[in-house]
């Protein structure tokens, strides 16, 4: 085995030397047509847990190796995504099935296909590709996309699919670079047009008669729905990230802990790799599937992570319609006809379906943002959705710039030059000891002044409540302005972004930028970015408490980051568990009535809660009981009734506090929690890991961590089975990285991909890192060549196109 490993290492060195001597290739923009060609090739060095280190001479060949390696691990998930962005789900799966939520919010395949075929028919992505950089993607990114498509296709041609999800499926077929770009477009509009797909594709002018002629959006209900829609509480993506300045660390260099919370299944999973072009690029980290660049990662000098931001990346324009024609809207009294886009979708076992979409100067007419937020098109009023990220295909360039950066200043430079991130904050640290948080995202240029002058009656309610602006589309003076330093019209420029540099710590857990550092709050930004001086989530409060304490203690190392990630402290329990146990013990007769009116004996529950360690470790007894109680309580009791001491902006980390055990719903939540566990046959003091788990390869793997409302840093949103406990994870901790530096040129990094590299149950890397996660173990990152060559599992594969 040692001899074989040495031979592989020697081969890798030879390949590295050869690759360094090769000239860069020529670039070409992606175009529709046949599968990409060009004789591309790359070297893939696999280390433990199936992590590929991709070595290539230029960007096209790097894209080739990345596309190959991603296909090897995730071909079915990738193919499903390409089917979505081509608008062909109805052809293969029927119009009524669900498309899944990875790239589409549509309720049916037909709705999803109507939207994405509309994008294709309008040549939206092609137009964005034709824009010269920086308004459009760079030559390097286009080469990566071209190579990615070629690598994916080469893997398909040369390998047999063993994943039962798509083995022998007719819908798995070669792709073009344009398919890769369309996938990127779909990711860019996740926070904007994607939210309104059903409302875009179902929009119809009102008839001459009928209930829809005079309907109007209810301001109060719409504002509340918008607040919930853009809240992190129920989102299927979120994150924590913290960067420490060198003044707080053991060696004066920066530290970064990234903990994104993303779906454990489907097309928004991360995938790990290292990408290397000698002398040009050397970066390691996680990529969203279908992405040809590293989205969250590190290099020899800087590390970064992202958190889903509170900025609202869309706005609405309320249209005043021509009384004689509801498909004509007025601007400064002049009529403008809506543009009709007729879209046809092929359907399995049926005739093609044709529908019309309606577009305006502001964007598509939309009749709702999800089922909970209707925006009716009446005889007098309609709503158009503005999504500035629908003309932004620059995200890959921003992340490529991060990969090349040599400091947090380089990260800011990439954000300034490319302005491509649609819906995330950036947290970064570097070798020199700098720390950074910036909410540099592409947002509609909604200033508070513009909202004050131009909000409709509906917008005057929705904007303060949620950041969703509804502007008067009948007035030309209410159009979005432009900043001089903005790459595209109608968005904020880099100088307007909330940013904090070189604080002892900067942390974000999906609240606004205001409390990124409790001693240096960020203020002065517009409401569309998020709130200032408002109550923070328990995850934010717990995170600030933890990292502020770490910074004050000082002498921090990567090991401290690892401890923080899996501390599994429950801030909700520290605030409420003891009071809950006392109030429980004081109940007359030791009984409580559930929401069904039945009396439940809760005496044992009181004792279990009193003994619980306030953690969500797999061995914590009482954790599951408190979890079920707290979920029920926080749904039943309004947040203003939950605590005796209200929120104070002067003490935002410690308030609100003191649970109000007299609040209606408290005793019922106790009774319901006990009844939940009894129905499932779960002991009240069972260790968490016995009943919060996933099954991989027929074996139960215990899962630690907890739900959003508990405030646990290590967030896990598990799926409850009334007869078996939490038997799967929907989303939560995903690509975790703890990164620091020393005198060595090699970063000291530990990583963990909680759900592992592959979705294929027949892959050896289907659950290997999930087993590590269950045991709170990490992967030692192998970044430098010497560490790659020493890996005991090293496997070197030379991949190339075959004619």
Which short descriptors sum up this protein?
single chain, 803 residues, alpha+beta, 10-stranded mixed beta sheet, 8-stranded antiparallel beta sheet, 23 helices, disordered N terminus
Compact overview of the structure:
The protein is built from 23 helices and 32 strands.
Strand order of the largest sheet: 19-17-16-8-7-6-5-2-1-32
**Low-pLDDT segments:** 1-37
Computed Rg:
27 Å
**Based on helices, strands and strand pairing, what is the structural class?**
alpha+beta
Outline type: globular
Helicity range = 25-40%
End-to-end separation in angstroms reads: 35 Å
Largest sheet: 10 strands, mixed
Number of helical segments? 23
Question: What integer is the average pLDDT?
Answer: 93
Percent strand equals: 15-25%
Number of strands: 32
Structure description:
The strands form seven sheets. A ten-stranded mixed β-sheet has the order 19-17-16-8-7-6-5-2-1-32, with helices on both faces. Strands 3, 4, 20, 27, 28, 29, 30 and 31 form an eight-stranded antiparallel β-sheet that branches. Helix 10 (395-404) packs antiparallel against helix 11 (408-418) and helix 16 runs antiparallel to helix 17 (603-611). Strand 16 (424-430) and strand 17 (435-438) form a beta hairpin. It is α+β, with helices and mostly antiparallel strands. It is globular, with a radius of gyration of 27 Å.
Secondary structure topology:
Elements: H1 2-20, E1 41-47, E2 51-55, H2 59-86, H3 89-93, H4 109-121, H5 124-130, H6 139-158, H7 177-188, H8 197-201, H9 219-229, E3 238-244, E4 255-263, E5 270-277, E6 281-288, E7 296-298, E8 302-308, E9 315-322, E10 325-331, E11 334-337, E12 339-347, E13 350-360, E14 363-364, E15 381-386, H10 395-404, H11 408-418, E16 424-430, E17 435-438, H12 448-454, H13 459-466, E18 470-472, E19 499-501, E20 505-508, H14 538-553, H15 558-565, H16 571-585, E21 591-593, E22 599-601, H17 603-611, H18 623-636, H19 639-642, E23 643-645, E24 657-659, H20 666-679, H21 688-691, E25 693-696, E26 699-702, E27 716-721, E28 725-733, E29 735-740, E30 748-753, H22 768-774, E31 779-780, H23 785-789, E32 795-800
Parallel strand pairs: 2-5, 9-18
Antiparallel strand pairs: 1-2, 1-32, 3-4, 3-20, 4-28, 4-29, 5-6, 6-7, 7-8, 8-16, 9-10, 9-15, 10-11, 12-13, 13-14, 16-17, 17-19, 21-22, 23-24, 25-26, 27-28, 29-30, 30-31
């Amino acid at each position: 085995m040692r001899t074989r490993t040495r031979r592989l290492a020697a081969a890798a060195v030879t390949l590295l030397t050869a690759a360094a001597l090769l000239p860069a290739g020529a670039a070409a923009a992606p175009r529709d047509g046949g599968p990409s060609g060009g004789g591309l090739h790359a070297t893939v060095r696999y280390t433990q847990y199936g992590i590929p280190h991709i070595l290539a001479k230029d960007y096209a060949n790097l894209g080739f190796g990345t596309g190959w390696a991603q296909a090897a691990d995730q071909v079915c998930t990738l193919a499903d995504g390409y089917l979505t962005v081509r608008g062909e789900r109805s052809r293969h799966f029927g119009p009524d099935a669900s498309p899944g939520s990875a790239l589409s919010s549509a309720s049916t395949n037909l709705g999803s296909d109507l939207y994405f075929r509309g994008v294709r028919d309008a040549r939206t992505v092609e137009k964005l590709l034709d824009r010269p950089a920086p308004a459009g993607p760079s030559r390097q990114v286009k080469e990566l996309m071209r190579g990615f498509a070629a690598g994916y296709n080469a893997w398909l041609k040369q390998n047999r699919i063993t994943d039962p999800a798509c083995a022998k499926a007719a819908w798995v077929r070669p792709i073009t670079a344009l398919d890769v770009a369309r996938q990127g477009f779909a990711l860019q509009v996740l926070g904007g047009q994607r939210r309104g797909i059903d409302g875009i594709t179902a929009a119809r002018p009102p008839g001459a008669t009928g209930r829809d002629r005079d309907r109007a959006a209810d301001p109060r209900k719409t504002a509340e729905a918008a607040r919930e829609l853009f809240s992190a509480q129920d989102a299927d993506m979120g994150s924590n990230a913290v960067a420490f300045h060198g003044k707080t660390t053991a060696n004066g260099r920066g530290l970064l802990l990234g903990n994104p919370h993303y779906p454990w299944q489907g097309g928004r999973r991360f995938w790990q790799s290292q990408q290397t072009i000698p002398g040009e690029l050397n970066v390691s980290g996680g990529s969203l599937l279908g992405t040809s660049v590293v989205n969250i990662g590190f290099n020899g000098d800087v590390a970064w992570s992202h958190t889903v931001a509170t900025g609202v990346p869309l706005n609405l324009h309320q249209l005043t319609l021509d009384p004689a024609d509801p498909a004509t809207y007025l601007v400064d009294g002049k009529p403008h006809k809506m543009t009709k886009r007729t879209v046809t979708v092929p359907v399995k076992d049926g005739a093609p379906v044709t529908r019309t979409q309606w577009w305006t100067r502001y964007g598509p007419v939309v009749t709702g943002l999800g089922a909970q937020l209707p925006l009716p098109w009446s005889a007098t009023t309609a709503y158009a959705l503005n999504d500035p990220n629908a003309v932004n295909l620059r995200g890959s360039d921003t992340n490529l710039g991060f990969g090349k950066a040599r400091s947090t200043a380089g990260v800011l430079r990439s954000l300034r030059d490319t302005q491509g991130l649609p819906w995330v904050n950036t947290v970064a640290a570097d070798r020199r000891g700098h720390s950074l948080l910036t909410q540099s995202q592409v947002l509609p240029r909604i200033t508070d002044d513009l909202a004050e002058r131009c909000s409709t009656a509906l917008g005057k309610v929705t904007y303060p409540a949620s950041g969703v602006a509804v502007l008067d589309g009948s007035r030309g003076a209410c159009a979005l302005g432009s900043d001089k330093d903005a790459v595209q019209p109608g968005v904020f420029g880099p100088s307007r972004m909330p940013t904090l540099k070189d604080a002892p710590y900067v942390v974000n857990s999906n609240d606004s930028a205001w409390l990124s550092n409790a001693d240096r709050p960020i203020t002065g930004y517009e409401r569309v970015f998020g709130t200032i001086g408002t109550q923070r989530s328990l995850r934010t409060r717990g995170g600030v408490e933890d990292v502020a304490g770490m910074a004050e203690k000082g002498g921090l190392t990567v090991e401290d980051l690892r401890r923080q990630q899996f501390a599994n402290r429950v801030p909700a329990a520290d605030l409420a568990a003891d009071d809950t146990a006392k109030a429980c013990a004081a109940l007359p007769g030791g009984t409580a009535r559930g929401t069904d009116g039945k009396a439940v004996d809760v005496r044992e529950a009181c004792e279990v809660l009193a003994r619980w360690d306030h953690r969500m470790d797999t061995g914590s007894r009482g954790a599951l009981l408190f979890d079920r109680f707290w979920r029920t309580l926080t749904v039943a009791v309004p947040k203003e009734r939950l605590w005796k001491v209200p929120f104070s902006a002067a003490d935002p980390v410690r308030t609100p506090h003191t649970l109000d055990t007299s609040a209606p719903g408290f005793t019922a939540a106790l009774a319901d929690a006990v009844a939940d566990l009894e129905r499932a046959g779960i002991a009240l003091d069972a260790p968490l890991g016995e009943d919060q788990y996933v099954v991989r390869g027929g074996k139960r793997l215990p899962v630690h961590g907890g739900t959003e409302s508990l405030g646990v840093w290590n967030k896990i949103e598990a799926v409850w089975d009334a007869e078996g406990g939490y038997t799967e994870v929907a989303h939560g901790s995903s690509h975790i990285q703890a990164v620091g530096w020393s005198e060595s040129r090699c970063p000291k990094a530990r990583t963990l991909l909680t759900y592992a590299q592959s979705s294929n149950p027949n892959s050896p890397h289907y659950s290997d890192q999930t087993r590590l996660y269950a045991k709170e173990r990490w992967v030692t990152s192998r970044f430098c060549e010497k560490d790659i060559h020493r890996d005991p599992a090293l496997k070197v594969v030379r991949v190339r196109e075959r004619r």
